[in-house]
Amino acid sequence: MRTWMMAVLSVCDVTIHFGWHMILNKVSFDLEQQDRVGLVGANGVGKSTLLNIIVGALEPDRGTVRIGQEARLGYLRQVQRYPDDMAIEGVISAITSELTELEQRIRQLEIEMANKKDAELDGLFQEYGDLSERFERLGGYDYEHRLEIITAGLHIDHFSRDRQWGTLSGGEQARWGLAGLLLSQPDVLLLDEPTNHLDVTSLEWLEDYLQGYRGAILVVSHDRHFLNRTVNRIIEIDEHHRGAVAYSGNYESYRAAKALERQQRFAAYTAQQEEIRSLRAAVSVTARRNDNYRTHTDNDKFIVNFKKSQHEQTVSKRVQEAKTRLERLLADPIPPPPEDLTFKAPLAGDYAGFRIPIRVEQITKGYDDRLVIDNISFEIRTDSRVLLVGENGAGKTTLLDILAGLTKPDKGSVLRNPGLKVGYLQQSDHLPDEWDGLTMFEAYCHGIEAPRDALQAQVIRTGLFRYTDFDKPVDSLSSGELRKLFIGRMIAMRPHVFILDEPTNHVSLDVIDGLEQALRMFSGAVIAASHDRYFISHFEGEIWEISGGQLIRKP
After folding, report:
1. pLDDT in tens, 375-385
2. Which CATH number fits domain 358-553: 3.40.50.300, 3.40.1190.20, 1.25.40.10, 3.40.50.11270?
3. Cβ-Cβ contacts under 8 Å for 345 (sequence gap 6 or more)
4. Model pTM?
5. What would be the CATH architecture of the domain defined by 84-186?
6. CATH of domain 27-71+193-284+304-337
7. What is the pLDDT of residues 441-469, one digit of tens each?
8. What is the distance between the alpha carbons of residues 139 and 533, in angstroms, rounded to a whole number?
Protein backbone atom coordinates (compact mmCIF):
# COMPACT_ATOMS: atom_id res chain seq x y z
CA MET A 1 0.00 0.00 0.00
CA ARG A 2 1.42 3.35 -1.08
CA THR A 3 0.68 6.10 1.44
CA TRP A 4 1.29 9.84 1.29
CA MET A 5 3.34 9.73 4.50
CA MET A 6 5.97 7.82 2.51
CA ALA A 7 5.69 10.03 -0.58
CA VAL A 8 7.97 12.87 -1.64
CA LEU A 9 5.24 13.99 -4.06
CA SER A 10 1.49 13.37 -3.93
CA VAL A 11 -0.96 14.42 -6.65
CA CYS A 12 -4.61 14.10 -5.59
CA ASP A 13 -7.67 14.54 -7.87
CA VAL A 14 -6.04 17.25 -10.00
CA THR A 15 -8.50 18.62 -12.57
CA ILE A 16 -8.02 21.49 -15.00
CA HIS A 17 -9.87 22.91 -18.01
CA PHE A 18 -8.67 25.26 -20.72
CA GLY A 19 -11.88 27.02 -21.69
CA TRP A 20 -14.51 24.35 -22.31
CA HIS A 21 -11.89 21.68 -22.97
CA MET A 22 -11.04 19.30 -20.11
CA ILE A 23 -7.29 18.67 -19.98
CA LEU A 24 -6.88 16.63 -16.78
CA ASN A 25 -9.63 14.86 -14.84
CA LYS A 26 -9.09 13.75 -11.22
CA VAL A 27 -5.47 12.77 -11.78
CA SER A 28 -4.01 11.07 -8.69
CA PHE A 29 -0.69 9.33 -7.97
CA ASP A 30 2.27 9.59 -5.65
CA LEU A 31 6.03 9.32 -5.92
CA GLU A 32 8.24 7.78 -3.28
CA GLN A 33 11.96 8.09 -2.84
CA GLN A 34 13.77 6.15 -5.60
CA ASP A 35 10.63 5.88 -7.74
CA ARG A 36 11.33 6.00 -11.47
CA VAL A 37 8.09 6.87 -13.27
CA GLY A 38 7.46 7.47 -16.97
CA LEU A 39 4.52 9.80 -17.77
CA VAL A 40 3.04 8.90 -21.17
CA GLY A 41 -0.07 9.60 -23.22
CA ALA A 42 -1.23 10.97 -26.56
CA ASN A 43 -0.04 14.39 -27.70
CA GLY A 44 -2.07 17.16 -26.10
CA VAL A 45 -3.45 15.13 -23.15
CA GLY A 46 -1.79 17.43 -20.61
CA LYS A 47 1.52 15.85 -19.61
CA SER A 48 3.43 19.14 -19.63
CA THR A 49 0.41 20.85 -18.06
CA LEU A 50 0.57 18.38 -15.18
CA LEU A 51 4.27 19.09 -14.63
CA ASN A 52 3.53 22.83 -14.55
CA ILE A 53 0.81 22.23 -11.96
CA ILE A 54 3.22 20.18 -9.84
CA VAL A 55 5.82 22.98 -9.75
CA GLY A 56 3.16 25.64 -9.10
CA ALA A 57 3.35 27.39 -12.48
CA LEU A 58 -0.35 26.57 -13.07
CA GLU A 59 -3.24 26.42 -10.61
CA PRO A 60 -5.62 23.45 -11.03
CA ASP A 61 -9.40 23.95 -11.00
CA ARG A 62 -9.62 21.25 -8.33
CA GLY A 63 -7.28 18.92 -6.50
CA THR A 64 -4.03 19.27 -4.60
CA VAL A 65 -0.29 18.72 -4.99
CA ARG A 66 1.67 17.97 -1.82
CA ILE A 67 5.43 18.03 -1.58
CA GLY A 68 7.18 15.99 1.11
CA GLN A 69 8.76 17.85 4.00
CA GLU A 70 11.93 19.65 2.85
CA ALA A 71 11.72 17.92 -0.55
CA ARG A 72 13.05 20.03 -3.44
CA LEU A 73 11.64 19.89 -6.97
CA GLY A 74 13.74 20.33 -10.09
CA TYR A 75 12.01 20.83 -13.45
CA LEU A 76 13.50 20.53 -16.93
CA ARG A 77 11.18 22.25 -19.41
CA GLN A 78 11.25 21.46 -23.12
CA VAL A 79 12.42 25.02 -23.86
CA GLN A 80 15.01 26.80 -21.70
CA ARG A 81 14.14 30.50 -21.44
CA TYR A 82 16.88 32.79 -20.17
CA PRO A 83 18.03 36.23 -21.35
CA ASP A 84 20.07 36.02 -24.55
CA ASP A 85 22.85 38.13 -23.05
CA MET A 86 23.20 35.96 -19.94
CA ALA A 87 26.39 33.88 -19.80
CA ILE A 88 26.17 30.09 -19.47
CA GLU A 89 27.77 30.48 -16.03
CA GLY A 90 24.91 32.76 -15.00
CA VAL A 91 22.30 30.26 -16.23
CA ILE A 92 23.91 27.45 -14.24
CA SER A 93 24.02 29.69 -11.15
CA ALA A 94 20.33 30.52 -11.61
CA ILE A 95 19.38 26.84 -11.86
CA THR A 96 21.50 25.95 -8.82
CA SER A 97 20.42 29.10 -6.96
CA GLU A 98 20.14 27.42 -3.56
CA LEU A 99 23.73 26.26 -3.74
CA THR A 100 24.80 29.73 -4.89
CA GLU A 101 22.94 31.43 -2.04
CA LEU A 102 24.27 28.95 0.53
CA GLU A 103 27.84 29.48 -0.63
CA GLN A 104 27.46 33.27 -0.49
CA ARG A 105 26.06 33.14 3.06
CA ILE A 106 28.78 30.73 4.21
CA ARG A 107 31.47 33.07 2.85
CA GLN A 108 29.77 36.02 4.54
CA LEU A 109 29.68 34.14 7.88
CA GLU A 110 33.38 33.32 7.58
CA ILE A 111 34.15 37.04 7.27
CA GLU A 112 31.86 37.91 10.17
CA MET A 113 33.34 35.22 12.42
CA ALA A 114 36.85 36.45 11.73
CA ASN A 115 35.90 39.89 13.09
CA LYS A 116 33.77 38.88 16.10
CA LYS A 117 34.73 38.31 19.71
CA ASP A 118 34.34 34.88 21.32
CA ALA A 119 31.17 35.87 23.15
CA GLU A 120 29.49 36.77 19.87
CA LEU A 121 30.46 33.63 17.95
CA ASP A 122 28.04 31.01 19.33
CA GLY A 123 25.10 31.97 17.14
CA LEU A 124 27.28 32.40 14.07
CA PHE A 125 28.92 29.02 14.64
CA GLN A 126 25.51 27.33 14.83
CA GLU A 127 24.29 28.92 11.59
CA TYR A 128 27.61 28.22 9.89
CA GLY A 129 27.46 24.56 10.89
CA ASP A 130 23.84 24.13 9.72
CA LEU A 131 24.48 25.81 6.38
CA SER A 132 27.73 23.91 5.81
CA GLU A 133 25.97 20.61 6.46
CA ARG A 134 23.22 21.44 3.95
CA PHE A 135 25.78 22.72 1.43
CA GLU A 136 27.63 19.40 1.68
CA ARG A 137 24.41 17.38 1.41
CA LEU A 138 23.53 19.23 -1.79
CA GLY A 139 26.95 18.52 -3.29
CA GLY A 140 28.31 22.03 -2.97
CA TYR A 141 31.85 21.05 -2.00
CA ASP A 142 32.34 18.89 -5.09
CA TYR A 143 30.37 21.26 -7.37
CA GLU A 144 33.11 21.77 -9.95
CA HIS A 145 34.01 18.09 -10.09
CA ARG A 146 30.38 17.08 -10.64
CA LEU A 147 29.93 19.82 -13.24
CA GLU A 148 32.90 18.46 -15.18
CA ILE A 149 31.45 14.92 -15.11
CA ILE A 150 27.97 16.06 -16.17
CA THR A 151 29.10 18.39 -18.98
CA ALA A 152 31.45 15.70 -20.33
CA GLY A 153 28.62 13.16 -20.28
CA LEU A 154 26.34 15.55 -22.18
CA HIS A 155 29.13 16.54 -24.62
CA ILE A 156 29.07 20.24 -23.72
CA ASP A 157 32.36 20.43 -21.80
CA HIS A 158 34.06 22.20 -24.74
CA PHE A 159 31.91 25.34 -24.33
CA SER A 160 33.28 28.41 -22.58
CA ARG A 161 30.99 29.25 -19.67
CA ASP A 162 31.40 32.93 -20.58
CA ARG A 163 29.53 32.33 -23.83
CA GLN A 164 26.19 34.12 -24.14
CA TRP A 165 23.02 32.05 -23.92
CA GLY A 166 21.53 33.50 -27.10
CA THR A 167 24.42 32.21 -29.21
CA LEU A 168 23.55 28.58 -28.39
CA SER A 169 21.26 26.40 -30.49
CA GLY A 170 18.03 25.08 -28.96
CA GLY A 171 19.65 21.68 -28.48
CA GLU A 172 22.71 23.17 -26.77
CA GLN A 173 20.48 25.19 -24.46
CA ALA A 174 18.51 22.07 -23.58
CA ARG A 175 21.69 20.19 -22.66
CA TRP A 176 22.99 23.03 -20.49
CA GLY A 177 19.60 23.25 -18.78
CA LEU A 178 19.74 19.53 -18.07
CA ALA A 179 23.30 19.87 -16.79
CA GLY A 180 22.28 22.58 -14.33
CA LEU A 181 19.32 20.58 -13.11
CA LEU A 182 21.38 17.42 -12.51
CA LEU A 183 23.98 19.53 -10.73
CA SER A 184 21.33 20.88 -8.32
CA GLN A 185 20.39 17.31 -7.23
CA PRO A 186 16.69 17.89 -6.41
CA ASP A 187 14.75 15.30 -4.39
CA VAL A 188 12.19 15.04 -7.20
CA LEU A 189 13.47 15.30 -10.77
CA LEU A 190 10.79 16.36 -13.28
CA LEU A 191 11.99 15.88 -16.86
CA ASP A 192 9.98 16.94 -19.92
CA GLU A 193 11.42 15.24 -23.01
CA PRO A 194 15.06 15.18 -21.81
CA THR A 195 16.30 13.00 -24.69
CA ASN A 196 15.24 15.15 -27.66
CA HIS A 197 18.62 16.81 -28.17
CA LEU A 198 20.99 14.07 -27.05
CA ASP A 199 23.11 11.86 -29.28
CA VAL A 200 23.44 8.14 -28.56
CA THR A 201 26.51 8.34 -26.31
CA SER A 202 24.94 11.17 -24.26
CA LEU A 203 21.71 9.19 -23.98
CA GLU A 204 23.55 6.16 -22.66
CA TRP A 205 25.44 8.33 -20.17
CA LEU A 206 22.17 9.92 -18.95
CA GLU A 207 20.51 6.52 -18.52
CA ASP A 208 23.42 5.29 -16.41
CA TYR A 209 23.38 8.51 -14.38
CA LEU A 210 19.64 8.30 -13.67
CA GLN A 211 19.88 4.65 -12.64
CA GLY A 212 22.13 5.75 -9.79
CA TYR A 213 20.16 8.89 -8.92
CA ARG A 214 19.17 9.10 -5.26
CA GLY A 215 15.91 11.02 -5.68
CA ALA A 216 12.57 10.29 -7.33
CA ILE A 217 12.14 10.81 -11.08
CA LEU A 218 9.02 11.69 -13.10
CA VAL A 219 9.86 11.83 -16.80
CA VAL A 220 7.83 12.63 -19.90
CA SER A 221 9.45 10.87 -22.83
CA HIS A 222 8.63 9.30 -26.18
CA ASP A 223 11.99 7.51 -26.30
CA ARG A 224 11.05 3.86 -25.91
CA HIS A 225 14.57 2.60 -25.29
CA PHE A 226 15.12 5.31 -22.65
CA LEU A 227 11.90 4.36 -20.84
CA ASN A 228 12.86 0.69 -20.93
CA ARG A 229 16.17 1.44 -19.22
CA THR A 230 15.16 4.09 -16.68
CA VAL A 231 11.64 3.59 -15.26
CA ASN A 232 9.98 1.03 -13.02
CA ARG A 233 6.44 2.35 -13.41
CA ILE A 234 4.39 3.97 -16.16
CA ILE A 235 1.58 6.47 -15.56
CA GLU A 236 -0.60 7.02 -18.60
CA ILE A 237 -2.86 10.05 -19.01
CA ASP A 238 -5.82 8.44 -20.77
CA GLU A 239 -6.77 10.48 -23.82
CA HIS A 240 -10.49 9.65 -23.51
CA HIS A 241 -11.20 10.17 -19.79
CA ARG A 242 -8.14 12.35 -19.00
CA GLY A 243 -7.43 10.44 -15.80
CA ALA A 244 -4.22 8.68 -14.72
CA VAL A 245 -3.75 4.91 -15.04
CA ALA A 246 -0.68 3.26 -13.48
CA TYR A 247 1.20 0.23 -14.85
CA SER A 248 4.10 -1.50 -13.16
CA GLY A 249 7.33 -2.13 -15.06
CA ASN A 250 9.03 -0.38 -17.97
CA TYR A 251 7.73 0.62 -21.40
CA GLU A 252 7.64 -2.90 -22.86
CA SER A 253 5.71 -4.14 -19.81
CA TYR A 254 3.28 -1.24 -20.20
CA ARG A 255 2.83 -1.94 -23.90
CA ALA A 256 2.09 -5.63 -23.26
CA ALA A 257 -0.35 -4.76 -20.45
CA LYS A 258 -2.15 -2.25 -22.67
CA ALA A 259 -2.49 -4.78 -25.49
CA LEU A 260 -3.89 -7.41 -23.11
CA GLU A 261 -6.23 -4.86 -21.54
CA ARG A 262 -7.60 -3.83 -24.92
CA GLN A 263 -7.97 -7.48 -25.99
CA GLN A 264 -9.94 -8.30 -22.81
CA ARG A 265 -12.17 -5.23 -23.17
CA PHE A 266 -12.90 -6.08 -26.80
CA ALA A 267 -13.66 -9.71 -25.89
CA ALA A 268 -16.06 -8.64 -23.12
CA TYR A 269 -17.76 -6.13 -25.45
CA THR A 270 -18.07 -8.69 -28.26
CA ALA A 271 -19.47 -11.36 -25.90
CA GLN A 272 -22.11 -8.96 -24.56
CA GLN A 273 -23.13 -7.82 -28.04
CA GLU A 274 -23.48 -11.45 -29.10
CA GLU A 275 -25.66 -12.19 -26.06
CA ILE A 276 -27.84 -9.15 -26.81
CA ARG A 277 -28.34 -10.33 -30.39
CA SER A 278 -29.18 -13.85 -29.18
CA LEU A 279 -31.71 -12.61 -26.61
CA ARG A 280 -33.42 -10.36 -29.12
CA ALA A 281 -33.66 -13.24 -31.56
CA ALA A 282 -34.96 -15.59 -28.86
CA VAL A 283 -37.69 -13.14 -27.80
CA SER A 284 -38.79 -12.64 -31.41
CA VAL A 285 -38.71 -16.32 -32.44
CA THR A 286 -40.39 -17.62 -29.27
CA ALA A 287 -43.17 -15.07 -29.54
CA ARG A 288 -43.83 -16.08 -33.16
CA ARG A 289 -43.94 -19.77 -32.21
CA ASN A 290 -46.56 -19.01 -29.57
CA ASP A 291 -48.66 -17.09 -32.11
CA ASN A 292 -48.37 -19.97 -34.57
CA TYR A 293 -49.17 -22.70 -32.03
CA ARG A 294 -51.57 -25.22 -33.45
CA THR A 295 -53.52 -27.78 -31.49
CA HIS A 296 -53.13 -31.31 -32.55
CA THR A 297 -55.95 -33.59 -33.56
CA ASP A 298 -56.99 -34.59 -30.06
CA ASN A 299 -60.82 -34.61 -29.92
CA ASP A 300 -60.86 -34.11 -26.15
CA LYS A 301 -61.45 -30.34 -25.79
CA PHE A 302 -60.36 -30.38 -22.13
CA ILE A 303 -56.98 -31.93 -22.99
CA VAL A 304 -56.49 -29.56 -25.93
CA ASN A 305 -57.14 -26.46 -23.83
CA PHE A 306 -54.97 -27.75 -21.00
CA LYS A 307 -52.00 -28.37 -23.32
CA LYS A 308 -52.43 -24.99 -24.99
CA SER A 309 -52.49 -23.20 -21.66
CA GLN A 310 -49.46 -25.09 -20.44
CA HIS A 311 -47.53 -24.22 -23.62
CA GLU A 312 -48.46 -20.55 -23.40
CA GLN A 313 -47.32 -20.35 -19.78
CA THR A 314 -43.97 -21.95 -20.63
CA VAL A 315 -43.41 -19.66 -23.60
CA SER A 316 -44.47 -16.59 -21.62
CA LYS A 317 -42.00 -17.43 -18.85
CA ARG A 318 -39.15 -17.88 -21.34
CA VAL A 319 -39.97 -14.63 -23.13
CA GLN A 320 -40.14 -12.72 -19.84
CA GLU A 321 -36.83 -14.15 -18.64
CA ALA A 322 -35.15 -13.20 -21.94
CA LYS A 323 -36.68 -9.70 -21.84
CA THR A 324 -35.53 -9.17 -18.24
CA ARG A 325 -31.98 -10.28 -19.06
CA LEU A 326 -31.97 -8.11 -22.20
CA GLU A 327 -33.18 -5.05 -20.27
CA ARG A 328 -30.39 -5.52 -17.72
CA LEU A 329 -27.73 -5.75 -20.42
CA LEU A 330 -29.05 -2.69 -22.26
CA ALA A 331 -29.23 -0.71 -19.00
CA ASP A 332 -25.57 -1.40 -18.23
CA PRO A 333 -23.83 -2.00 -21.57
CA ILE A 334 -20.10 -2.63 -21.89
CA PRO A 335 -18.82 0.25 -24.04
CA PRO A 336 -16.75 -0.57 -27.12
CA PRO A 337 -13.02 -0.06 -26.59
CA PRO A 338 -12.29 3.58 -27.55
CA GLU A 339 -10.20 4.21 -30.62
CA ASP A 340 -6.89 5.82 -29.70
CA LEU A 341 -5.33 8.31 -32.09
CA THR A 342 -2.87 6.18 -34.00
CA PHE A 343 -1.13 7.14 -37.22
CA LYS A 344 -2.54 4.96 -39.98
CA ALA A 345 -2.10 6.89 -43.23
CA PRO A 346 -0.63 5.12 -46.25
CA LEU A 347 2.30 7.01 -47.74
CA ALA A 348 2.02 7.28 -51.50
CA GLY A 349 3.48 9.16 -54.44
CA ASP A 350 3.97 8.98 -58.19
CA TYR A 351 7.48 7.76 -59.06
CA ALA A 352 7.39 7.60 -62.84
CA GLY A 353 10.68 8.80 -64.27
CA PHE A 354 12.37 9.20 -60.88
CA ARG A 355 14.86 6.31 -60.87
CA ILE A 356 17.48 8.61 -59.30
CA PRO A 357 15.53 11.47 -57.69
CA ILE A 358 18.60 13.19 -56.16
CA ARG A 359 22.29 13.17 -57.10
CA VAL A 360 24.86 14.88 -54.85
CA GLU A 361 28.22 15.75 -56.40
CA GLN A 362 31.25 16.81 -54.34
CA ILE A 363 29.46 19.13 -51.93
CA THR A 364 31.22 21.02 -49.16
CA LYS A 365 29.64 23.11 -46.41
CA GLY A 366 31.13 24.90 -43.42
CA TYR A 367 30.21 27.35 -40.69
CA ASP A 368 32.73 29.89 -39.37
CA ASP A 369 36.06 28.03 -39.43
CA ARG A 370 34.62 24.50 -39.25
CA LEU A 371 33.80 22.17 -42.15
CA VAL A 372 30.78 20.00 -41.40
CA ILE A 373 30.57 18.46 -44.91
CA ASP A 374 33.76 17.97 -46.88
CA ASN A 375 33.59 16.96 -50.56
CA ILE A 376 31.01 14.16 -50.41
CA SER A 377 29.06 12.57 -53.26
CA PHE A 378 26.19 10.07 -53.38
CA GLU A 379 22.91 9.19 -55.08
CA ILE A 380 19.40 8.80 -53.65
CA ARG A 381 17.51 6.23 -55.71
CA THR A 382 13.76 5.69 -55.81
CA ASP A 383 14.02 2.75 -53.41
CA SER A 384 16.73 4.22 -51.15
CA ARG A 385 16.37 3.79 -47.40
CA VAL A 386 19.05 5.82 -45.63
CA LEU A 387 19.48 6.49 -41.92
CA LEU A 388 21.92 9.26 -40.99
CA VAL A 389 23.64 8.91 -37.61
CA GLY A 390 26.39 10.86 -35.88
CA GLU A 391 27.15 13.00 -32.88
CA ASN A 392 25.41 16.31 -32.24
CA GLY A 393 26.88 18.97 -34.50
CA ALA A 394 28.30 16.45 -36.96
CA GLY A 395 26.27 17.92 -39.85
CA LYS A 396 23.21 15.68 -40.19
CA THR A 397 20.68 18.53 -40.22
CA THR A 398 22.90 20.57 -42.55
CA LEU A 399 23.00 17.71 -45.06
CA LEU A 400 19.21 17.22 -44.87
CA ASP A 401 18.68 20.96 -45.38
CA ILE A 402 20.87 20.77 -48.50
CA LEU A 403 18.98 17.73 -49.84
CA ALA A 404 15.65 19.52 -49.27
CA GLY A 405 16.90 22.66 -51.03
CA LEU A 406 16.74 24.92 -47.96
CA THR A 407 20.52 25.42 -47.77
CA LYS A 408 23.06 25.73 -50.57
CA PRO A 409 26.44 24.01 -50.35
CA ASP A 410 29.56 26.18 -50.46
CA LYS A 411 30.91 23.97 -53.23
CA GLY A 412 29.54 21.19 -55.40
CA SER A 413 26.03 20.61 -56.71
CA VAL A 414 22.76 18.86 -55.87
CA LEU A 415 20.82 17.64 -58.90
CA ARG A 416 17.11 16.97 -58.41
CA ASN A 417 14.83 15.32 -60.93
CA PRO A 418 12.51 17.95 -62.52
CA GLY A 419 9.09 17.80 -60.87
CA LEU A 420 10.43 16.03 -57.79
CA LYS A 421 8.35 16.67 -54.66
CA VAL A 422 10.25 16.43 -51.38
CA GLY A 423 8.45 16.07 -48.06
CA TYR A 424 10.73 17.49 -45.37
CA LEU A 425 10.02 17.12 -41.65
CA GLN A 426 12.40 19.54 -40.00
CA GLN A 427 13.68 19.14 -36.46
CA SER A 428 12.67 22.69 -35.56
CA ASP A 429 8.91 23.13 -35.27
CA HIS A 430 8.90 26.92 -35.54
CA LEU A 431 5.48 28.35 -36.42
CA PRO A 432 5.47 30.14 -39.79
CA ASP A 433 4.47 33.81 -39.52
CA GLU A 434 1.63 33.28 -42.00
CA TRP A 435 -0.05 30.88 -39.54
CA ASP A 436 -0.59 33.64 -37.00
CA GLY A 437 -4.22 33.57 -35.80
CA LEU A 438 -5.11 30.36 -37.66
CA THR A 439 -6.81 27.26 -36.30
CA MET A 440 -5.21 23.84 -36.53
CA PHE A 441 -7.24 22.91 -39.62
CA GLU A 442 -6.68 26.26 -41.31
CA ALA A 443 -2.93 25.82 -40.83
CA TYR A 444 -3.18 22.27 -42.22
CA CYS A 445 -4.92 23.58 -45.37
CA HIS A 446 -2.63 26.60 -45.83
CA GLY A 447 -1.06 26.51 -49.29
CA ILE A 448 -2.56 23.10 -50.21
CA GLU A 449 -4.83 23.22 -53.25
CA ALA A 450 -7.65 20.76 -52.59
CA PRO A 451 -11.36 20.91 -51.66
CA ARG A 452 -11.97 21.56 -47.95
CA ASP A 453 -14.12 18.42 -47.54
CA ALA A 454 -11.38 16.27 -49.06
CA LEU A 455 -8.78 17.74 -46.70
CA GLN A 456 -11.04 17.19 -43.69
CA ALA A 457 -11.44 13.54 -44.61
CA GLN A 458 -7.72 13.27 -45.21
CA VAL A 459 -6.86 14.61 -41.74
CA ILE A 460 -9.20 12.14 -40.06
CA ARG A 461 -7.88 9.21 -42.13
CA THR A 462 -4.34 9.87 -40.94
CA GLY A 463 -5.38 9.25 -37.34
CA LEU A 464 -3.39 12.30 -36.23
CA PHE A 465 -6.34 14.50 -35.20
CA ARG A 466 -10.05 14.35 -34.39
CA TYR A 467 -12.78 16.75 -35.53
CA THR A 468 -12.73 18.28 -32.05
CA ASP A 469 -9.14 19.40 -32.69
CA PHE A 470 -9.92 21.32 -35.89
CA ASP A 471 -10.78 24.65 -34.23
CA LYS A 472 -7.89 24.71 -31.75
CA PRO A 473 -5.76 27.86 -32.21
CA VAL A 474 -2.52 26.70 -33.80
CA ASP A 475 -0.48 28.66 -31.28
CA SER A 476 -2.13 26.71 -28.43
CA LEU A 477 -1.00 23.30 -29.73
CA SER A 478 1.46 21.30 -27.67
CA SER A 479 4.87 20.47 -29.13
CA GLY A 480 3.60 17.00 -30.03
CA GLU A 481 0.40 18.27 -31.65
CA LEU A 482 2.39 20.77 -33.66
CA ARG A 483 4.75 18.00 -34.74
CA LYS A 484 1.76 15.93 -35.89
CA LEU A 485 0.47 18.92 -37.85
CA PHE A 486 3.76 19.14 -39.76
CA ILE A 487 3.68 15.37 -40.38
CA GLY A 488 0.11 15.61 -41.71
CA ARG A 489 0.95 18.47 -44.07
CA MET A 490 3.98 16.61 -45.32
CA ILE A 491 1.84 13.56 -46.13
CA ALA A 492 -0.81 15.70 -47.84
CA MET A 493 1.82 16.80 -50.40
CA ARG A 494 2.16 13.18 -51.63
CA PRO A 495 5.94 13.60 -51.97
CA HIS A 496 8.23 11.32 -53.93
CA VAL A 497 10.94 11.48 -51.25
CA PHE A 498 10.60 11.77 -47.47
CA ILE A 499 13.38 13.60 -45.60
CA LEU A 500 12.94 13.30 -41.84
CA ASP A 501 15.01 15.05 -39.16
CA GLU A 502 14.46 13.34 -35.78
CA PRO A 503 10.95 12.15 -36.75
CA THR A 504 10.18 10.64 -33.33
CA ASN A 505 10.80 13.86 -31.34
CA HIS A 506 7.75 15.01 -29.32
CA VAL A 507 5.42 12.50 -30.99
CA SER A 508 3.36 10.10 -28.83
CA LEU A 509 4.33 6.44 -28.76
CA ASP A 510 1.32 5.10 -30.70
CA VAL A 511 1.85 7.65 -33.48
CA ILE A 512 5.54 6.71 -33.67
CA ASP A 513 4.65 3.03 -34.08
CA GLY A 514 2.18 3.84 -36.87
CA LEU A 515 4.62 6.17 -38.64
CA GLU A 516 7.38 3.56 -38.58
CA GLN A 517 5.04 0.97 -40.08
CA ALA A 518 3.91 3.39 -42.81
CA LEU A 519 7.52 4.21 -43.70
CA ARG A 520 8.29 0.49 -44.05
CA MET A 521 5.40 0.16 -46.53
CA PHE A 522 6.32 3.33 -48.47
CA SER A 523 7.69 2.49 -51.93
CA GLY A 524 9.62 5.73 -52.40
CA ALA A 525 12.89 7.00 -50.96
CA VAL A 526 13.33 7.77 -47.26
CA ILE A 527 16.27 9.68 -45.75
CA ALA A 528 16.08 10.09 -41.97
CA ALA A 529 18.35 11.36 -39.20
CA SER A 530 17.69 10.03 -35.72
CA HIS A 531 19.20 9.40 -32.30
CA ASP A 532 16.22 7.22 -31.31
CA ARG A 533 17.81 3.82 -30.74
CA TYR A 534 14.49 1.98 -31.03
CA PHE A 535 13.85 3.68 -34.38
CA ILE A 536 17.43 2.93 -35.48
CA SER A 537 17.24 -0.75 -34.52
CA HIS A 538 13.99 -1.24 -36.47
CA PHE A 539 15.02 0.81 -39.52
CA GLU A 540 15.21 -1.31 -42.66
CA GLY A 541 17.88 0.22 -44.88
CA GLU A 542 21.41 1.58 -45.05
CA ILE A 543 23.10 3.42 -42.19
CA TRP A 544 25.37 6.33 -43.08
CA GLU A 545 27.44 8.03 -40.40
CA ILE A 546 28.60 11.64 -40.68
CA SER A 547 31.92 12.13 -38.91
CA GLY A 548 34.68 14.68 -39.51
CA GLY A 549 32.86 16.02 -42.57
CA GLN A 550 32.87 12.61 -44.25
CA LEU A 551 30.05 10.20 -45.05
CA ILE A 552 30.81 6.67 -43.84
CA ARG A 553 28.57 3.86 -45.07
CA LYS A 554 28.11 1.29 -42.33
CA PRO A 555 28.16 -2.40 -43.28
Report:
1. 999 999 888 99
2. 3.40.50.300
3. 461, 462, 463, 464, 491, 518
4. 0.75
5. 3-Layer(aba) Sandwich (3.40)
6. 3.40.50.300
7. 999 998 888 888 888 888 888 888 888 88
8. 32
